[in-house]
Amino acid sequence: MFRIIPDTNINFIGHRKIAFVVSLCLVALGLFAFVMISTGNAPLGIDFAGGAKLQGYFEKPLEIDQLRGALATLEEVNVTEIADFEFPNAFIIKSRGAATDSLAKVRGTQIETILSEQFPDNAFTSVGAQSIGPSVGEQLRKDARWAVLISLLGIIVYIWFRFDFRSGVAATVATFHDVLAVLGVCYVLGLDFDLLIVTALLTLAGYSLTDTVVVYDRIRENLNKFRGRGEFVSAVNTSINEVLSRTFNTSLTVLLVVVTLFIFGGEVLRNFSLAIILGVIVGTYSSIFVASPIVVEWEARRPKRFK
């Protein structure tokens, strides 16, 4: 069978201290980004920061890039095309800044005026304008934090029953590391934190867990072959090397799809796909250099076999 990566014998566990330093830096950056986002001192999407939402449709078909270009004079505008069988050629236009219904109506009128000037032969009909207030944005931020925390709790319980408690803790730490690392990099890149970014973070948490479970399964199989206590590190290293080709193939396949989405998916999905790309890279790294080494360190201090 053809393998992109041949059989390897890399001492991954031997480099765990260097990996721990790198991971601590990524986690520190992620925690800083989390604090900045929680306090509203980071770039926030309209759903979190508040703004106006205008929904309507055009009489004739219109390319979304033309609509975005027409609204380029307005700051912080997000345009999404929607499939509405009752109203074809429909769009949702979100604009940051209008936090009350009255201001939302003013911004909606302003947008309609621009559209009538830019597309005089293609009438735009507004279905309704409404505000997305700061209180709604704050509630969404709280819900997003709870969603991430609950998912991490679910991970530790699942791995606990699947393997053992220490593996559940290690897998949760690795997943927590992945979420914070991607969050920190997104903050450095200046990406707007919105619901799509939250979706990407939860998606990569599941991806990271899947990769970690594969490694843990192979570790458990190999521990049945290595009986001596001093062979625990060797068993873990062997397990990582044995699944390395599978891990690389899976990550490469996912990256090919997500990179395609990043290039051709349009402006709305660009931040989401970029976050997923970062998550795949960090998730692959953490399953090798975070999840497994934590179990090794725990075993060295309190020896106990996988079940």
Verbal overview:
- The chain is 66% helix and 10% strand.
- The longest helix has 35 residues, at 267-301.
- It has 307 residues and is α+β, with helices and mostly antiparallel strands.
- It folds into two domains: 13-43 and 136-301, Multidrug efflux transporter AcrB transmembrane domain (Multidrug efflux transporter AcrB transmembrane fold, Up-down Bundle); 51-132, Alpha-Beta Plaits.
- The mean pLDDT is 80.
Features:
307 residues; alpha+beta; Alpha-Beta Plaits; four-stranded antiparallel sheet; 9 helices; 4 strands; elongated
Q: And the CATH topology of the largest domain?
A: Multidrug efflux transporter AcrB transmembrane fold
Average of per-residue pLDDT values: 80
How much beta, percentage-wise?
5-15%
Give the spatial strand order of the biggest sheet. 2-3-1-4
Looking at the overall shape, the CATH architecture of the largest domain is Up-down Bundle
Overall geometry comes to elongated
Distance from N terminus to C terminus (CA atoms, Å) equals: 32 Å
- The level-1 CATH class of the largest domain: Mainly Alpha
Q: Please tally the helical runs, counting DSSP H or I stretches of 4 or more residues.
A: 9
Structural class: alpha+beta
Taken in chain order, the helices and strands follow as HHEHEEHEHHHHH
| Percent of residues in helices | 55-70%
Assembly classification: single chain
What gyration radius follows from the Cα positions, in whole Å?
24 Å
Work out the number of β strands. Answer: 4
Main sheet? 4 strands, antiparallel
Going by CATH, the homologous superfamily of the largest domain would be Multidrug efflux transporter AcrB transmembrane domain
